[in-house]
Every structure is written in C-alpha cells, then in structure tokens.
Write a structure and sequence with these properties.
Largest sheet of chain B: 5 strands, antiparallel
CATH class of chain B: Alpha Beta
CATH architecture of chain B: Roll
Strand content of chain B: 15-25%
CATH superfamily of chain B: Tgt2/MlaC
Number of strands of chain A: 2
Order of helices and strands of chain B: HHHHHHEEEEEH
Low-confidence stretches of chain B: none
Number of strands of chain B: 5
Number of helices of chain B: 7
Oligomer: heterodimer
Structural class of chain A: mainly alpha
Shape of chain A: globular
Shape of chain B: globular
Mean pLDDT of chain A: 81
CATH topology of chain B: Nuclear Transport Factor 2, Chain: A
Strand order of the largest sheet of chain B: 1-2-3-4-5
Distance between the termini of chain B: 72 Å
Largest sheet of chain A: 2 strands, antiparallel
Chain lengths: 269, 206
C-alpha cells in the first residue's frame, strides 16, 4: 500500500460512498461506505494483521522493538521538522533537525533515541496537521482500506506523508514494501493492549473508533489545546437545578469555538 | 532589616501552613498522589499484573473513585440530552456509566509494564476552580502517550471530571454513541443498553 495507490482507491471509494443514505452524524456523511470498509478492515485485521502483530509482540525482544521504533522514528523526524517549519514553528523544527543529527550519528543510524535523553522531545506532526493549521477543513470522515480511519483531508495528506517516507528508500519497491509492512506490524503491536478497551468499553465499535480518531486529530492539530466544545457546558448550565453537587461556575467562558461548533447544533436529523 | 525578613518568612510560612490546612491537596498534588499510589499498588500486587481484573477494580474503587466526579462525567458524555433527563434518569445513567468506565479501565491496570508518569509544568493559578494537569506516560520502546486530567473544585476538594489519553477523552468519546442511542430509543433506552453492556461484561468475566 504505497502513497501512489491511495489516491485512486480514495476516489473510487468516494464514488461508492456518494450514494450513502441520510447521515446520523454531520462529521460522517459517508457512514454507509465507512461502516462497510470498517468491517472489511476488521476482518483483515483478525485474519492477518493482528495474529502477525501478536507473534511479533511475543518474539521480538524489547530492545529490538525499541530499536525498530526508533529507526523509523528517526526517518520520520525529518518530515516532522519540515511540517513544524511549514506551520511556523521554527524552533520546534530546528529541534527536530537536531534530533535527526544526533540520533543518526551518536544514536547509530537512529536505532537509539539519544536526543530524547538530551531533552529534545519527539514531536507529533504530519502533513494533515499542517493543512489543519493552515485552516483546511477536515472534510468528511473517511475509512481507508488497510490504513483505517482518516478524514478526507488527512487521507490526501497521508498519500503525501507516505510518498515522502518512501523517498528514503530510493524508489526500491521491495525495500519500500518491506519497510511499510514492518512499520505497520510494529504499530499494530503497540496497539494490542488497546483492543481490550475497545472490545469492552464501546457500545458501538465503529462510532467509538470514529469519535476517538476525530478527537485525537483535533487535539494534534491544536497541539494539545483544542478549542472547547460547546456541548461540554451542559453540566455547569444546569447544575443548580437538580444536580446534588453544588458546583459553581466551574466551566471557563467558552473560548474560541470556531470550527468545532459547525455541525454540532444540527446534529439531529 | 534582618529581623523583618525573618518575620516576613515566618508569616509566609504560617500563611502557607494555614492555607494547606484548610484546603485539600491542589489539583497537581492530588493527581500525583493518585497516580503514585496506584502505580505503587499495582507494582506490589502480582495478581493484578497477572490479569486479576476484580482486584484491579477493587483498587480503583478504593483509591481512585473517591476523587472522581462521576455525575459531571456522565453529563459530559451525554451532552445536550442531559438537560432533558429527569433526576432518576441522571442517577441511573451515572451509575451505569460509572460501572462501564471502571470495568473497562481497571483492565488497563492489569497491563501495567514499567511505564512511568512524568508531570509537565503546571499552569494553574491558586484561585482557579477548574484546572488541567498534563502528564505523559513514558514506556520503554514506544512513543510517549499524553494523558491530561481535568479537575474542578467541589466544595473544598478537587475532583477529576475528565481524563484525556492521547487526545481522546475517555468521557466525551461516548457522546456520539449516547446521542445515537437516545435518538433511537430515548434516555431510558440508553440506560437499558448500558445495563446490558455491563451485564455482558460481568458474564464474560465469570
């Protein structure tokens, strides 16, 4: 699954999803298609990816796993730095480039994350976040085959992220594929512990995953300080009526609620 | 001059002591105490680490729950429909949601594996009644995970009303599915489906 492939798949899927029926959720007009692709991904995960990740989890000793994670992390740091610069965070970008310099040399090709020990933290950036910081809207929620949840904006950005990523392997398809698969399995192995939470905690797994993805992306785009959702304030507005707890005006005044407000008020059909 | 400074220091110390005596721990200290106590308890308990969920639940109920405001959490998860719910419905929702959250996340404790929690600089002011405590879960060989706590003053004590892990609120993440359920079958329908979910979890366990 390379970046080159995702775009046509995306367009084709969009065409299919276009005929979905009335959406329950304004973030998710393609729910019909998305649920079908979610079920497909789920089956694929159960049949192939999860068992592979479980074997990998069991037989890969922790130092090796850390090395693999750090190696890919080091390659990723270059693009993270570029994205930080594109978002106007030059300081963070410089710190990312310093990380690459330190980890590629002292950290032996990135296998050891020495820079973190020096206090240069790893950042979490990608092109989707850069687009978000430029004001590009999310677009509808959109389930990619194999890769899973995205928004339309982030699906397009993922294609670019992957193309940049693959550039490091010099256009050698075998290396690209090998690296992509190893990365996918490593990522899946890190998520094994979350499976239980999803299985036990969710009333509707599809909705739970969708909401988690959208919340996480908003958190990332706003670097951990997303605007307050107006629907968070129902507690404070009626705590005086029937609530047994005397909670004062605990909720801070609604700050900027720009993009998140859109759609929430017409959540009902 | 010297005496004045000594007096000032003494006064400040007394003032500090007095304010500490009146109020409980502040939001940051409370969160630190909570996480440290729980980690120490899990580290000392081989059964929890071997997957004894019931024991993990007991630990959470004794040590953690008294410092959580579950009614506020449930109101956050339900969102706008909270306003239309009766007092009985609110109580039932809170009880069921509490059971669901405790069951689901006590399980996470059984997966504890040498993670450490690092507290980020706290940015609250002393007279705040609502605060955020930001932490990071560090684990060997994987990327650190952000974990933010939202706390509010209830009476004299700080209570947690939201926990956001990796950008996902363990509470508001339920809002869409709750709203969907309420649209389909009303608040009572949601209470019923939460009950069913909780029963299903208990049956699986036994």
């Amino acid at each position: 699954m390379t970046g080159r492939l995702s775009v046509p798949i995306m367009v084709a899927a969009l065409a299919v999803g276009g005929c979905a029926s009335t959406p329950d959720n304004p973030d998710d007009p393609l729910e019909g298609y998305n649920r079908a692709m979610f079920a497909f991904n789920d089956r694929l995960d159960k049949a192939v990816l999860k068992p592979t990740a479980q074997v990998y989890d069991k037989f890969t000793p922790l130092p090796l796993r850390a090395g693999i994670g750090n190696f890919f992390g080091n390659i990723g740091d270059v693009w993270i730095g570029v994205n930080n610069v594109m978002q106007g965070k030059a300081g963070d970008g410089l710190s990312d480039f310093a990380r690459v310099l330190i980890n590629s040399t002292v950290g032996i090709l990135g296998i050891f994350d020495i820079a973190s020990e020096f206090g240069l933290e790893r950042h979490d950036e990608d092109f989707g976040q850069t687009l978000g910081s430029w004001g590009v809207g999310e677009g509808p929620y959109f389930m990619l085959p194999v890769l899973g949840p995205r928004t339309l904006r982030d699906a397009g950005a993922t294609a670019i992220d992957m193309t940049v990523d693959n550039a490091w392997y010099g256009g050698r398809l075998a290396t690209e594929t090998g690296a992509s698969i190893l990365k996918l399995v490593n990522t899946r192995a890190n998520l094994l512990a979350a499976d239980k939470v999803l299985d036990e905690g969710a009333l509707d797994r599809y909705v739970y995953v969708r909401e988690a993805y959208l919340q996480r992306r908003r958190y990332e785009v706003y670097d951990g300080r997303p605007p307050r959702n107006p629907e968070d304030d129902y507690w404070s507005s009626d705590s005086g009526e029937t609530g047994p707890n005397e909670v004062g005006d605990g909720a801070p005044a609604a700050e900027q609620v720009d993009r998140l407000v859109v759609g929430i008020d017409d959540a009902g059909r | 001059m010297k005496k004045t400074i000594v007096n000032l220091l003494a006064a400040a110390a007394i003032g500090l002591g007095a304010s500490l005596a009146v109020a409980g721990p502040g939001p940051e200290d409370l969160t630190k105490q909570l996480t440290e106590q729980v980690i120490a308890a899990v580290e000392a308990d081989a059964e929890i680490r071997a997957g004894d969920t019931e024991k993990a639940i007991r630990l959470v109920e004794e040590r953690v729950l008294p410092h959580f405001n579950f009614e506020h959490m449930t109101a956050l998860a339900v969102g706008r429909d909270w306003r239309g719910a009766s007092a009985e419905q609110r109580q039932a929702l809170t009880a069921q949601f509490r059971t669901l959250l405790v069951r689901t996340y006590s399980n996470a404790l059984t997966q504890y594996d040498n993670q450490t929690i690092v507290f980020k600089p706290f940015r609250g002011r002393p007279d705040d009644r609502d605060a955020q405590v930001r932490t990071e879960i560090r684990q060997p060989g994987a990327q650190a995970i952000q974990m933010d706590f939202s706390l509010e003053m209830v009476g004299e004590d700080w209570k947690v009303y939201d926990v956001v892990v990796a950008g996902v609120s363990l509470v508001t993440n339920y809002r869409a599915s709750f709203a969907q359920q309420i649209r389909q079958s009303g608040v009572d329908g949601l209470i019923e489906s939460l009950k069913a979910k909780n029963n299903e979890l208990v049956v699986e366990k036994s």
